[in-house]
Amino acid sequence: MATPGTPGRRWRGPALAAAVAAALVGFFFALPEPGEERLAPPAPGFVLRDVRVFDGERVIERATVVVREGRIAAVGPDVAVPPGLPVQDGQGGTLLPGLIDAHVHTWGDGLAETLNFGVTTVLDMFSDPGPHQALRRTRESLSPRAHADKFSAGALATAPGGHGTQFGVKVPTLTTPAEAPAWVDARLAEGSDFIKIVYEPRTAEGLGPPFPSLDRATMAALISAAQARQRPAVVHVSRHVPAEEALAAGADGLVHVHVDRVAEPALVQLARERGAFVIPALAVIAGFDPTPPPAGQLREPLRLAADPAVRPFLTPDQRRGLESAPTTKLVMFRLDTALASVRALHEGGVEILAGSDAPNPGTAHGASLHHELELLVRAGLTPVQALRAATSAPARRFGLADRGRIAPGQRADLLLVAGDPTADIRATRAIQRIWKNGAAVERHRYPEAP
Ligand SMILES: [Zn+2]
């Protein structure tokens, strides 16, 4: 199960990995991110009355929530309204913890686009580590801000010429288990919050992506080195056998569900026994799936882009990204197969986390996490289980103690939606209000191109 040397860490257990394959995209390049900001004091607070609350774990049908200076002060059915704070009526709505997208890649305006859809925290699975240092400092504060908080792997672990080296970000590669401890130390020195490993070996028959991969021993040594330093180790895989090998090596989780066939009972059992989680990133598989939709229906990403609750808040670039045709002819990407695997994993007791892999083609920051929630429900999670997968579960697995729940002391990252997403998951898109650190976020609308 957990690796010796990591007692008491909430994320102990096998690592995550996952693997959408070869094609994960050649358009990745580094642009500036929000830098170090002047940190304003937290907003004074407010009270939200008579609102349904999903607190990250369960539903409270009617509650009052008190927010003071960036944090939740009280929540419950019998909480008294304190004097001196503005009071809002939440009837007919549901208050959720700010959502957490457990698989993204951010640069440029990505973190602002993310927040525009109520996603207040992201787990970045590889981007330029340079801008991350300033973001690490800001994210600890309770100051109001216009972008989501980012926790990041920084550079990923891959072989020379391997997946991840094609995006224009300088990636320090390695080839042997002996290099693993120093490689992990270098990432932690750069500010990485966890370790992401790409494991795409060819099969004995020579099948697999057309680029080199770390070997099994080096993948395992990286997991051990990360866990010895109290950091989660997650693995990108795209196929069944490498997924099993990563789980056997003790990965905390997989950051994709494999796509070559439906998960077999042995894989499910291994993941459950090791306590590993899986971030299936169904949204990006839906984006790559070349299967024509049934007659009269739109492809999944087009349907998201056309949703009137979503479309006005997408930037023109985001609309184009969702509406682009699949850029690859990767017949391996079948949403149906991936949904069946997630169903098997979930029914087998494996914890599923919600992640979109935005901004890959067919996805958009923020919006695609709402799509992912819908896909997780289609795979058999209840709406409440899907909401946990985007709130308390990733916070627990990645050791983010101050977010993912609506409870006293938690950071007041909040999302108020109309209706009841614990009954109909698509209600998460009916956003009425977003708060980051207890301060209301101004949502941006973008006019249609003429
Ligand atoms: Zn990714």
Question: Can you walk through the features of this model?
Answer:
By secondary structure, this protein is of the alpha/beta class. It has 2 domains: 38-97 and 404-444, Urease, subunit C, domain 1; 99-401, TIM Barrel, CATH 3.20.20. The protein contains 13 helices and 16 strands. The longest helix has 13 residues, at 216-228. Residues 1-32 have low confidence and may be disordered. Zinc ion (ZN) is lined by residues 24, 103, 105, 125, 357.
The topology string of helices and strands comes to EEEEEEHEHEHEHEHEHEHHHHEHHHEEE
Instruction: Quickly give the CATH architecture of the largest domain.
Output: Alpha-Beta Barrel
What's the level 1 CATH class of the largest domain?
Alpha Beta
> What would the average pLDDT be, to the nearest integer?
90
Heteromolecules bound: zinc ion
**Could you estimate the helical fraction of the residues in percent?**
25-40%
Distance between the termini: 56 Å
- Describe the main β-sheet briefly: 8 strands, mixed
Helix- and strand-based class?
Answer: alpha/beta
Gyration radius from CA atoms, angstroms: 21 Å
- Overall form: globular
CATH topology of the largest domain: TIM Barrel
Integer tally of domains: 2
| Low-pLDDT runs | 1-32
Count of helical regions: 13
Number of strands: 16
Fourth-level CATH superfamily of the largest domain: Metal-dependent hydrolases
Strand content: 15-25%
